[in-house]
């Protein structure tokens, strides 16, 4: 796909093709032992994906199963996909001891917010509030 370079951005700043900027930026990590390449261009106006990350402690497993069995359909209606849904947790640092982590990706922060504010999720949220405690954030990503 060809892009009109007049509409490209690098780290949120418009790119002027006459600036002769490199297409990649090198990032140094791990005390100089690891180098990775990062493409920094994003077409101006394109929404960044949003990740909804939840930490869940189920207090009523039987009741929570109703929420779990229905939430995927509500997410799919807004184009979301599961990236993490439960699974083994290995705490690498700190005191955080989550019981269950779920992470979904949406096309944009707007889509994530539309899902969260939807009538379909509002009904499920009531079920979840009675069967589990949850912390939830949405964050823009790459």
Could you write a compact summary of the structure shown?
The chain has 142 residues and is of the alpha+beta class. The chain has helices at residues 61-76, 109-117, 119-129, and strands spanning 8-10, 13-14, 24-29, 34-39, 41-43, 50-58, 81-85, 100-106, 132-140.
Would you kindly provide a written description of the structure presented here, covering whatever features stand out?
There is one protein chain. By secondary structure, the chain is α+β, with helices and mostly antiparallel strands. 25% of the residues lie in helices and 35% in strands. It has three helices and nine strands. The chain has a four-stranded antiparallel β-sheet with strand order 7-8-6-9. Mean pLDDT is 80; it is low at 1-5 and 20-42.
